[in-house]
Amino acid sequence: MKIFNTMTRKKEEFVPLEPGKVKMYACGPTVYNYFHIGNARPFVVFDTLRRYLEHRGYAVTFVQNFTDIDDKMIRRANEEGVSVRELAERFIAAYYEDAAALGVRPATVHPRATDHIAEIIALIQKLEANGLAYATGNGDVYFDTQKYRNAYGKLSGQNLDDLESGARIEVDEIKRYPMDFALWKGQKPGEPAWDSPWGKGRPGWHIECSAMSMKYLGETIDIHGGGQDLIFPHHENEIAQSEGATGKPFVRYWMHNGFLNVDNQKMSKSLGNFFTVRDIREQYDLEAVRMFLLSAHYRSPLNFSREQIEQAKAALDRMYTARDNLAFLREGAVDRPADETEAALMEAAEASLKKFDEAMDDDLNTADAIGAIFELIKHANIALKPGCAREAVDAAWNAFTEMTGVLGLVKPASKEDDAEVDALVKARAQARKEKNWKESDRIRDELKARGYIVEDTAAGQKVRKA
Ligand code: AMP
Ligand code: ZN
Fold first, then answer.
1. Residue nearest to atom 18 of ligand 1 (CA)
2. Residue 416: its pLDDT value, please?
3. Ligand 2 center to residue 303 CA distance, Å?
4. What whole-number distance in Å separates Cα of residue 110 and Cα of residue 33?
5. Could you give phi then psi for residue 52, rounded to 5 degrees?
6. Considering the entire predicted model, what is its pTM?
7. Strand ranges (DSSP E) for 187-240?
8. Which of 409, 324, 306 is nearest to 366 (CA)?
């Protein structure tokens, strides 16, 4: 697989540090609000990367943090008259719900900054010992960028001179140089605080990711991801802290997704041009949002509009129809060798799997991977009829479920759901046999209320998701 590495600005062959294992970290949400569709992009992208790496046989350990202490958390908690911890609890629960509706699996670990204060303090002490951090005496501790001059800026391709000329020190900061950044912040009135060697205070933002990445994944990891806005200063600072402490490379492959835009402007909470995933959920199945987010390459900018979501929904519907067709055909399949058309489909299924892998191997080209799924659907529609050879329909089914599964699309119908729908369909077949049209229509309406559409075909009833 090739991955575009932000550090080298090149697509590179992906070789994990340890054969067969991948250690990856993605910067997660600050939990002071519901997340918006822009935030959803990295969640969906890195979930898909993880699924694909697993499909390629890697054992993946995936860490995604919750930032549960920062200025925004404190402000919002004060506004609402709740503790920062309570605020975090609420929006972490909401994260899990919204992420699940987007088909985003929970990471292996979701560490929270405030549960890792000891690790954070230890890391800052290590930086102090290495001469890379200084305490100001008022409870703050800063990273000393001057002592790290030569290595600072390599991810974002900037040097300290340029950065310093454009920066200034805010009045309430007692730091030595403009690009120095807070590792620890002394307590201000009304703020939550933890004991530390520098007095009561709380961690700065960047340090949590260094500390938690090292704790769960080790000093050097394979992949670190996030949105492009994190390249500078967040990831630059993570590198300075981590490599400054250990002297070892922190990350082998840096991956950054492009922005989700509204009218060519980044969707963001501060600009107010955002739609939370909660809002959108009232109108659209979030699976359509996942489809939309995967319809473009993850590094390209992507413009949000309702039409785009509608288009994604239509494409997703075509996938569901294909799944239901295949499921229906499998039920009536016959154990016989494939005929010529069916044999051609079996080859097409192989070919689509290969195309899918090639697309995903090319820096996670999900757009082309979706194309490979539609090619398979086209071939299956041509080749398969009721009474088709089992080996042919199975080949198409297996390829289809494999590919959609890697993209986290097309949910398998739940067993419970299946059994109930099955019972209704059987009851309806009986009603029709008895020419009890009223009952047959009643059951059709009941299925509809459950989100299934039933059609009467020459081969019997055909059920699909609405
Ligand atoms: P935050 O909660 O703001 O720290 O953001 C969580 C994740 O969402 C980070 O990886 C950000 O880079 C990413 N992100 C924020 N806004 C956008 C956007 N408009 N498009 C794509 N990614 C974004
Ligand atoms: Zn981070």
1. 38
2. 64
3. 25
4. 17
5. -65, -45
6. 0.90
7. 201-203, 221-227
8. 409
Judge contact between 2 and 14, C-beta under 8 A: yes
Mutate to test the pocket of ligand 1, among 39, 259, 266 (most ligand atoms within 8 A of CB): 39
Distances (CA, A) of 24 to 90, 123, 152, 240: 26, 20, 23, 19
Residue to mutate, 31, 229, 274, ligand 1, most ligand atoms under 8 Å from C-beta = 229
What's at 193, amino acid-wise?
A: A
Q: How far apart are CA 215 and CA 217, in angstroms?
A: 6
DSSP H/E element including 266: strand 265-266
- Show the tokens assigned to 327: 């499921």
Nearest CA to ligand 1 atom 6: 29
Six token digits for residue 343: 């044999």
Structure tokens at 241: 């802290």
Q: Cβ-count burial of 299 within 10 angstroms (0-12 exposed, 13-18 middle, 19+ buried)?
A: middle
Q: In the chain, which stretches have pLDDT less than 50?
A: none
Neighbours of 325 (CB within 10 A): 18
Q: Output the pLDDT for position 339.
A: 97
User: How many Å lie between the centroid of ligand 2 and the Cα of residue 237?
Assistant: 9
pLDDT of residue 93: 95
Position in ligand 1 atom list of the atom nearest CA 266: 19
Q: What angle do CA 381, 382, 384 make, to 5 degrees?
A: 70
State whether residue 337 is helix, strand or coil.
Answer: coil
Using a 6 Å CB cutoff, which residues line ligand 1?
27, 29-30, 38-39, 41-42, 226-227, 229-230, 257, 259-260, 266-268
> Any bridge partners for residue 465, and if so which?
452
Rounded to 10°, the helix 286-294/37-55 angle is: 70
Closest by CA position to 11, among listed 259, 231, 253: 253
Proximal ligand: closest to the CA of 239: 2
Distance of CA 324 to the CA centre of its chain: 27
Q: Which atom of ligand 1 is nearest to the CA of 261?
A: 19
Q: Which two tokens stand for residue 333?
A: 């399949």
Q: How far apart are CA 233 and CA 180, in angstroms?
A: 11
Q: Is the CA virtual torsion 180, 182, 187, 190 positive or negative? A: positive
* Helix H or strand E segment including 346: helix 340-361
Report d(CA 272, CA 265) in Å as an integer. Answer: 11
Measured from the Cα of 260, ligand 1's closest atom is: 20
Taking only the tens place, the pLDDT of each residue in 214-231 is: 999 999 999 999 999 999
Query: Tens of pLDDT along 405-430?
Result: 999 999 876 556 777 888 888 899 99
